[in-house]
Each structure stands twice: as C-alpha cells, then as structure tokens.
C-alpha cells in the first residue's frame, strides 16, 4: 500500500496551474535504497502529489490513470473529491506524468476503480482530516467538534465556517495521519459518488481543443512515418531512399534498429521517412524501395491455422480444472451436445492511430504519448537509451488523452520508435501511424477455437461438461517458447465456469504464435464468452426450454462458486474472492432482469428472434439481450439491452456510456471483425476491408444498471463479452442458422 | 501561394498544392481540432465545411479549395458568432456524447452540415448522412439524440450562413457534387480535377 504524506513545503509550486498552492498532499511508495537518491530531488517530487489546495480554495487533483474515453479523468478526481468534501465546481484536474510514486498507472483490465477504490478514497479522506484538524486547532476544539462540508470546515456547535483556502496553509503544517486510522464515509453519505458530475474533458472535446498524442506540435519538430517489416520478425536487407529524399519537405530517411523475437513491446524495425510535414513524409514513403528478409513467420495462413485449432480442440488437452469424471462416462448421444466455436484475429482500430513525440537533449528525454501504461513505457525507453534504474528521472513522459485505445496503447512500441528517431535525427520527432500501419502491425486478439461438450440431465440442466480452448498466448510476446495461456488468461471466462456441475473437465492446448498477440477490450473473454454464451443457448434449444431457464438451471442454487476447488489456481482478476465472489444469485438476478426488461420470450414476427447471454468478467456481472431480423439473408440488429451489476457505481452516466460503447464494440466483433493473415502478412488495410460498426448498424439500445453497495467491479471491458453471443443466438432464433464461426458476415449480409 | 478563407479569415498557404487540407490545417496552421482517422475518406474524423458542406479534408488537395470558405471545428459558432456555441455543440454537451472524443469534431461538423441542408431531419436522414463518420467508442445513440435536439435549435452561424466573407462567385460547381438520396451533399475532392499548380 502506498503511503500518504504532507509535502507542502517541498518545492511543488512549480507544477503548472497550482502556483498558489498552500497545501499539497502526496503519495509515495515505500522508498527502496536504489530509489532513495533520486527521490530526494525536487524534480521528482514535483509530480508526486494528489491533492493540492490553493489559498483561493481552488483544489487541484491529480489523475494518475490514463484517459481513453472511459471517463477516468472524471471518476478518479470524483472519488477523491467525495472524501475530501470538495465542491466539484472548484476542482481542476492535472494529468500525472509517468512516475512510480503514483503506484500502478497501468490503465488496463478495467482496473482503475475496482482495484484502487479504497486507496483513492483514502487520499481524499486524509486531506479532509487534516483540514478538519487545522480548523479544530484554530477554534481550539476537538476534531470531532468540526466537520468538513462542501469546501468549508464547519464548527458543529456554532455553525461558523472556514474555507478550505483559508485552512490550506494551516493544514500544510500538520503531520499526515496514518490513512488506516481515518474513517471513510458511509456509502449513504456519498454526495458525489453515484452522481453525474460535469465531465472534465467534455468542453475541450466539443470545442476541438482537447489534445491527443497526434496533436503535439514542437518547434523544429519532424514528422516520421515508418514502413515496417510486413511479417513479424522480418528485417530490412537493403533500401533505396534516393527518390524519397527528392520529395520537397523530406529531411531524412533512417533505418530503424533491426529487432528480433521475442518482440515484447519493442518496435518492429523498418525504415522511417522524416519530413517537415505529414504530407511530405507520406509522399516520401511511397517512393521508398525496400528489400525485406521476411523470416519464418511468413508461412502463417490464418484460414488454415483456424482449421488446425479446430482439429486440436477435438482432442483431450492439458488439464486446467476438473471435477468428478467426464472420461469414464458413457454419454447418451441423443442428449449430448458438442460444438466448436471459432473467433478470428481481431484488431483494436482506435480512431486515433498510435502516435508519440520525443525530444532528446543530452541525457534528458521528454516524451508526449497517449499510453495506457506510462511507467512501463518509461522503463522500456530507459532501457532503449541505456539508462540505469536510478537514471529514469531523465525521462519525462507526458500522458496525453488517447483517441481510443482498447488495449492497443498498453504497448510502448510506437513510443520507442519516436525515441529512437529523436536520438538518431537529433531533432524532436513525432511518429504517426497511418491507418494501414495500425491495421497491419497491431497486437491482435488471438485467433481461437473453443470446444464445448455436455450431456443434458433429466432436470433440463447439463452435466459431464468439457470445455477446451486453443489460441496463441499473449505470453509469446516475451517468451517464444510460450504455447499455452497463463492461468491469468485462463481465468477469463474459461476456468471460472459458474455452473452447478458434478463432472467437469476444462482443458487447454499448446499453440504456436505468428503475429503479435495482444489485449483487446475484454481479451480472452471475447472467445470464451462467445463459446459459453452460445453453448448455453444450444443446450436450451436441445432441451426445448427457454434460454433464460437453461441459464437458471445450470447456475443452480444461490452460492459463491470457488474455481480453486476444481484444482484451478483462480486469480479472480486480482480481486479478493470473498469481497468479489462469483455469486450465482447476482448472475440469476441479471439473467432474469435482462429477460424481463427486453421481453425476450415475447412472440415475435417471423424472421425475428431474441438472443441472450451473460458473462462475469473483471469483477462485474453483465447480461446482454439482442433482437434481430433475418430477411433475404440479411441480418438487421433491431434492439439491444445490457444489464450490469458492477457494485458501487461512481459515475453513472459513464457506466452507461461504457455499456453503450460495449454493445457497439461487440457488434463489430460479431458482425464484421476479422483480421486475416496470408503468408505471414495481414490482408486488411483500412476501414473498407476492416469494417467497424457504423451508425446505420447501431440499433435501439437500453442499459440497465443494478443499484448496489457491493465493492466496485470493472466497467471498460465487461460489457463486451456477452454481446456477440447474444447476437448469434438471436440470429439462430430468427433463422435457425447457428453461427459458430465469427464473424457473421461470412454467412449473412450485415 | 494558395488562399483560402478559414473560419472567416483569409489565410495564405505556401504548400504543395496536392497537400490535403487536413495536413495544411494541422501541420501548417496548428489547427489540430480536425483529426486524422484513416487518410482515405472512410471515417469522417477529418470532416470540415467547404462553403457549408461537409467535406473529408484528408482527401481534399488544398488546390481544389482555393478561394473557398472553410470552417473547422474551431470556427463553429452560433448566429452571434459565439465560438463553441453552435446548436450541435450545445447538444453534444447536453447529451454528453463524447467518450474518447477523437472522432467528435468530425461528427459535429457532419451534423452541422446535415442541419444546414435539412433543418429537421428524420431518423433515416440522420443515419444516411452520418454513416460516413465512424465512432469506435460507439456513441451513435447519443449522436442521434443530440442531432434531434440540435434540430430544435437553429441558431448556427456556420450551419446557416457558411461564407459571409466570401464571394459567391467562388463557390464550387454544385452540379458536380455527389449527392446522396436525401439531398445532402458530401464533397469528395478526389472526384474533382484541379490545377495542380494551385490558384
């Protein structure tokens, strides 16, 4: 746990926008000996604050997590302001630079609030306590005789008030109390958490003033575009830059360092064209001639590979979890269902392609980037520049807004490219990725096959369940020998089946990797959720009962499921399983709610159908329902609902927005999302051949949020997994055509 | 040297006449509200107005719009000229449309052009006109709602009176503009021939 300290007098005042601050509360990790030297410097400490209060009462709060559209730059400060008793109108937000003292800044896994809710609250609570103590000292009363209230501390007996601004310099002189001794607010006293506040970046975005990584402009800056090896692991043999250099505005052509497997989060190498403007760089790029050595990944063809994965999962795999015995059981063929589901490679395609700007002066390196993981990027850059652990302060990494990320911008490859080119060219360099670069050189959701088998029971449930999957694991990025997913990966809607089964076998397979695998919004929950949600629907059809009923029957009695009991080391998204249980009551509640709200069992016109699905992921429970029509081989999605139980809701409108966005993201995955690879090269180029959902495909949408006082779960990703199976289940009920291989547009017009 | 009227002010550009307007705006004029999304006229993130009509600036050479009136998100205003207060911007704030926000300049420029052509669009017209603008965050539901709300508020300067300081003689030949079936013109400059030496 991080420690909170009063750092008012340590030279924080240089931080932009808080020059009049009197009271500054910082947070730091326990200092290890190797960090001790650098942390004594003011430069370092300047950035290490969370709360600062100026004499005029303006409160500056730091957001240490990265904004990619989820609204975290509102929600984190909102949580601090809640405990601080700050007036939201008097709060401004500063974005943290990359600094280990903030603790985790890795904005991924829908983790910002679910993993840090309490520690973020404590920061606000400690500041509030110190302001109360300062007021109590002035009035010469006990602390419990005063109370912070909307930017003032009030004397309970007299009703007298002192503003935060007046108290700031007094609070600055106090010793910071131990955060564990400060009582957090009761949920019933929340005045900001659970309310919709003014969104921090809304006005700037609407005015066109919000600054993204693509928007960085520096004097003397060059813009770089890079031709990367068409196949992962490929290298430049030779290149001819003479024609490119003739393009007006092109300044230089630079070969990037060749890179090897394991690819990690490093750049891919290639040849860069640097120019005075984007157009010149792009024109110059067209005139490059490059001879490549493609390497052995050129043998990869995704359509053949998918067939191999399907074949693989027909066979028994390596144990993930077991209960009872499925292999010495005589399956009754009439009541047994087997199905194999496939999902292709999928790409993030954020609207803002990757971009980063770097400038190097001597040992000092300054970077502007939209990154989901500022500290990981900083460490990677430090290694690139040959800086030691204690020299990381030479790197200043400014975190910009991201124009979407969805997992792509966790990786620092594009940031290292900018640093490499700034170092070589000795000028500030902004690396921009074209859309083609983005689509062809991504970190893809892995191509996969999932197999399910189960036998219906006399109670219209199922047992003797087998789940298998096979897909290139993300661990391959760092270890070329990695062939099976880690337990953390297998925990994503696979090893944590919540059903009341007596006999269960969950198995994994070893798979080779050929393109860079990555985390795409909800990660392996995409394929595992698709298989699970589809298979339950298929079981319901076979049992001739409503899909809702099959879910309820499979879930069984209300209980907390513990996958560890099946021999699976279950990580539960790094959440405590007692505080964040797999609670079948909450699942059943959602299945019933979505079915009732969407009226999924209502009689429909011919060629129309409802489909439902569910997945618990990242600590949250989400059910989805979709209505489609299938006419003349064309699927039209008519209506979608999601119901979410994510525990305590911090910013309701942003939870709703994430659910709306997840429906649209899930639509893209289900209907059209496919990256195909031929001879090791991605075949798609831009939005014409990697289509994503457009407004004409977006149906009527409804979001149902469960009111809850349970600890908060994640919200960025959990909306996605149940969407695709709800769509394909609806297609089945409308047309009797079962889609087991995504995307839908292989079979139907969308 | 190519002259354009940018957000009601004359601007001269000394650039390759083939340079798409997008890069001239962003790299030369530091107007970064207009975004790069695809470079191929497929996503709408770069949408600006040329004489009040929506245009994809990433595929529009600067030479094709010489002497024309260009409005970018930075110039979108209400009838009184209050920047940032156009009907669509007011509605975008009211409905909290943006998530990451990156595509939203283009969305708002397309929406403003729609409302100029069709002040009270129905659902089909909204969908028809807006399907060239991709939002990967999936804000479509709110975009539709915001456009309908803005349709009740017709005080836009940029949407109603696109080129107050420009000679009408310099407007583009409207008969050559591709027109979709709801009458909204979407200008794709690749379909124009132009003097590559510039105006």
TrEMBL record, chain A:
One of its GO terms (molecular function) is isoquinoline 1-oxidoreductase activity. Gene3D superfamilies: Aldehyde oxidase/xanthine dehydrogenase, a/b hammerhead, Aldehyde oxidase/xanthine dehydrogenase, molybdopterin binding domain. InterPro entries: Ald_Oxase/Xan_DH_a/b (IPR000674), AldOxase/xan_DH_MoCoBD1 (IPR008274), AldOxase/xan_DH_MoCoBD2 (IPR046867), AldOxase/xan_DH_Mopterin-bd_sf (IPR037165), N-heterocyclic_Hydroxylase (IPR052516), OxRdtase_Mopterin-bd_su_IorB (IPR012368), TAT_signal (IPR006311). It is an enzyme of class 1 (oxidoreductase). Keywords: Oxidoreductase. Its EC number is 1.3.99.16. It comes from the Bacteria. Residues 207-296 form the Aldehyde oxidase/xanthine dehydrogenase a/b hammerhead domain. This is Isoquinoline 1-oxidoreductase.
UniProtKB/TrEMBL annotation, chain B:
Its EC number is 1.3.99.16. Residues 158-180 are annotated as: Disordered. Residues 1-76 form the 2Fe-2S ferredoxin-type domain. Keywords: 2Fe-2S, Iron, Iron-sulfur, Metal-binding, Oxidoreductase, Ubiquinone. InterPro entries: 2Fe-2S-bd, 2Fe-2S-bd_dom_sf, 2Fe-2S_ferredoxin-like_sf, 2Fe-2S_ferredoxin-type, 2Fe2S_fd_BS, Beta-grasp_dom_sf, Diverse_Oxidoreductases. GO terms for molecular function: 2 iron, 2 sulfur cluster binding; isoquinoline 1-oxidoreductase activity; metal ion binding. Residues 158-171 have a biased composition (Low complexity). This is Isoquinoline 1-oxidoreductase. The lineage of its organism: Bacteria, Pseudomonadati, Pseudomonadota, Gammaproteobacteria, Alteromonadales.
């Amino acid at each position: 746990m991080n420690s909170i300290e009063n750092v008012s007098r340590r030279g924080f005042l240089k931080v932009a926008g808080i020059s009049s601050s009197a009271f500054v509360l910082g947070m730091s990790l326990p200092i290890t000996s190797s960090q001790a030297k650098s942390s004594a410097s003011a430069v370092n400490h300047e950035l290490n604050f969370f709360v600062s209060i100026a004499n005029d009462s303006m409160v500056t709060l730091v957001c240490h997590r990265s904004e990619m559209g989820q609204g975290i730059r509102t929600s984190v400060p909102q949580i601090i302001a809640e405990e601080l008793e700050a007036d939201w109108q008097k709060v401004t937000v500063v974005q943290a630079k990359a600094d280990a003292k903030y603790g985790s800044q890795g904005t991924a896994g829908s983790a910002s609030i679910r993993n840090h809710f309490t520690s973020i609250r404590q920061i606000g609570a400690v500041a509030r306590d110190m302001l109360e103590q300062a007021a109590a000292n002035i009035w010469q009363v006990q602390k419990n005789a005063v109370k912070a209230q909307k930017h003032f501390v009030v004397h309970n007996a007299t009703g007298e008030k002192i503003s935060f601004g007046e108290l700031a310099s007094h609070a600055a002189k106090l010793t910071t109390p131990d955060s564990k001794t400060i009582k957090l607010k009761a949920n019933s006293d929340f005045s900001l958490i659970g309310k919709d506040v003014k969104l921090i970046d809304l006005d700037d975005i609407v005015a066109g003033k919000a600054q993204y990584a693509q928007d960085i402009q520096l004097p003397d800056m060059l813009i770089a575009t890079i031709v990367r090896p068409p196949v992962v692991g490929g290298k430049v043999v030779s290149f001819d830059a003479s024609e490119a250099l003739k393009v007006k505005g092109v300044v230089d052509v630079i070969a990037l360092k060749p890179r090897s497997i394991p690819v990690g989060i490093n750049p891919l190498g290639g040849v860069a064209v640097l120019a005075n403007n984007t157009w010149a760089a792009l024109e110059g790029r067209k005139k490059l001639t490059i001879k490549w050595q493609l390497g052995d990944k050129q043998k990869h063809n995704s359509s053949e590979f998918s067939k191999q994965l399907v074949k693989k999962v027909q066979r028994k795999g390596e144990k993930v979890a077991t209960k009872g015995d499925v292999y010495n059981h005589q399956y009754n063929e009439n009541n047994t269902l087997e199905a194999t589901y496939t999902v292709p490679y999928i790409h993030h395609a954020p609207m803002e392609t990757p971009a980063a700007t770097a400038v190097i002066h001597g040992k000092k390196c300054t970077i502007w980037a939209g990154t989901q993981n500022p500290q990981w990027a900083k460490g990677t850059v430090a290694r690139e520049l040959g800086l030691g652990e204690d020299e990381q302060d030479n790197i200043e990494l400014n975190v910009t807004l991201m124009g979407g990320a969805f997992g792509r911008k966790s990786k620092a490859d594009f940031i290292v490219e900018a640093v490499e080119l700034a170092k070589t060219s000795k000028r500030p360099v902004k690396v921009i990725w074209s859309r083609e670069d983005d689509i062809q050189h991504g970190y893809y959701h892995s191509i996969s096959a999932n197999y399910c088998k189960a036998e219906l029971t006399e109670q219209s449930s199922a047992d003797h369940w087998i789940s298998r999957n096979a897909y290139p694991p993300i661990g391959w990025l760092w270890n070329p020998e990695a062939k099976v997913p880690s337990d953390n990966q297998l925990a994503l809607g696979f090893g944590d089946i919540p059903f009341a089964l007596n006999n269960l076998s969950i198995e994994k397979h070893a798979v080779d990797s050929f393109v860079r695998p990555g985390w795409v919004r909800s990660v392996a929950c995409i394929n595992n959720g698709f298989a699970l949600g589809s298979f339950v629907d298929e079981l319901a059809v076979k049992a001739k009962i409503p899909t809702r009923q099959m879910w309820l029957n499979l879930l069984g009695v209300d209980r907390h499921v513990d996958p560890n009991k099946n021999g699976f080391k279950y990580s539960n998204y790094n959440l405590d399983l007692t505080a964040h249980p797999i609670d079948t009551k909450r699942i059943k509640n959602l299945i019933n709610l979505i079915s009732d709200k969407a009226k999924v069992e209502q009689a429909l016109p011919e060629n129309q159908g409802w489909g439902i699905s569910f997945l618990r992921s990242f600590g949250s429970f989400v059910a989805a329902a979709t209505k489609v029509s299938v006419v003349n081989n064309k699927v039209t999605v008519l209506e979608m609902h999601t119901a979410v139980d994510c525990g305590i809701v911090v910013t309701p409108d942003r939870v709703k927005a994430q659910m709306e966005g997840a429906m649209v993201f899930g639509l893209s995955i289900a209907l059209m999302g496919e990256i195909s690879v031929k001879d090791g090269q991605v075949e798609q180029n831009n939005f014409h051949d990697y289509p994503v959902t457009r407004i004409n495909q977006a149906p009527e949408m409804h979001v149902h949020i469960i009111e809850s006082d349970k600890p908060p779960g994640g919200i960025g990703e959990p909306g996605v997994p149940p969407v695709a199976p709800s769509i394909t289940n609806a297609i089945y009920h409308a047309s009797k055509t079962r889609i087991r291989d995504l995307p839908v547009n292989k079979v139907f017009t969308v | 040297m190519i002259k354009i009227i940018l957000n009601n002010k004359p601007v001269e550009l000394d650039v390759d006449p083939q340079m798409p307007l997008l890069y001239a705006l962003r790299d030369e004029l530091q107007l970064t509200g207009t975004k790069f999304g695809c470079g191929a006229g497929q996503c709408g993130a770069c949408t600006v107005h040329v004489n009040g009509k929506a245009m994809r600036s990433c595929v529009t050479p600067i030479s094709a719009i010489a002497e024309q009136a260009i409005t970018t998100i930075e110039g979108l205003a209400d009838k009184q000229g209050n920047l940032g207060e156009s009907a669509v911007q007011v509605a975008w704030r009211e409905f909290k449309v943006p998530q990451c926000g990156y595509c939203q300049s283009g969305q708002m420029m397309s929406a403003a052009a729609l409302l100029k052509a069709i002040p009270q669009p129905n659902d089909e017209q909204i969908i028809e006109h807006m399907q060239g603008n991709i939002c990967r965050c999936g804000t479509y539901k709110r975009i539709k709602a915001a456009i309908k709300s803005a349709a009740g508020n017709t005080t836009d300067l940029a949407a109603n009176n696109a080129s107050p300081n420009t000679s009408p003689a310099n407007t583009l030949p409207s008969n050559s503009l591709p027109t979709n079936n709801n009458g909204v013109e979407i200008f794709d400059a690749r379909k124009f021939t132009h003097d590559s030496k510039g105006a």
